[in-house]
Amino acid sequence: MRTRSSGDIVFAWVVYVFLLLVFIATFYPFWNILVLSLNSAEDTILGGVYFWPRVFSLTSYAQILGDQEIINGVKVTLARTLIGTPLAVLVISLLSYPLSKRDLVGGKFITLFFIFTMYFGGGLIPYYMILKSLHLIDTFWVYIAPGLMNVFFMILVRTFIQQLPGELDESAKMDGANDLQIFVKIVLPLTTPVLATIGLFTAIGHWNSWFDSYVFTYKPELKTLQAVLVKILNQYQTSSMVSDAQQMADSAKRLAVSSDSIRMAATIVATVPIVIVYPFLQKYFVKGMTVGAVKA
């Protein structure tokens, strides 16, 4: 057994200290958000709350969970995530499978056509006009339909499928299976790692999305949770411009949008659900990213 030299020990300690600093730098902001959300809203205004709640209170969470606008935002965001994610994974996998066939007529041209859309776009106004012509503006499906295809994810899945042994297709076709049966019974089970990876990214994208809700919807019942939070943050930033008389008249309402505790509680409510999903997909995550990215 080789004994460790003093240089190896020093290097190991340097690595441990560096990793500890990285952990503190990445973990503390989340911890501080949690601490502020658990601290009394009135006490938070005084400042000086860093590592633990000075005046423990769940009032901020009670106010957040009692706000009908936020509850409706949670429902809309949850619905778009649960509907949009599996549909996007299905559409991407259905396109990736035929494009993975090297003998597909026009396959390279179709792939280049999709790649072209990654680098060139018409801009926001033409995009808005297209959605309007499709009657998607101010509807729930404006959250779903535009996100059904992600070219980068398609390339990732296509490359993953291309690395599967070609003998699987040949043996299945010899047994009488058609392409759809091969896709469902062979390809989908074997591509679980990469599909779980793109599913996680798609779900995070749906959960954190707010711009499409801001631009493409007007009905309050269609606003997502993140759009509601952006509204709260904007109200907080502009509250200093409100007249003293208006501030006194709206003091009860202003507390909900200006208190750091309220904002941090809303951040926790918006963040925790999607964070909980990650551990269930972690075992697929690394494999899906590394294997699917080879030769992409």
From TrEMBL:
Cellular location(s): Cell membrane
Keyword Zinc among record annotations: no
Membrane-spanning ranges: 9-31, 78-97, 109-128, 140-161, 182-204, 262-281
Limits of the ABC transmembrane type-1 domain: 74-281
UniProt main location, coarse: membrane
Family assignment from sequence similarity: Belongs to the binding-protein-dependent transport system permease family.
Protein name: ABC transporter permease subunit
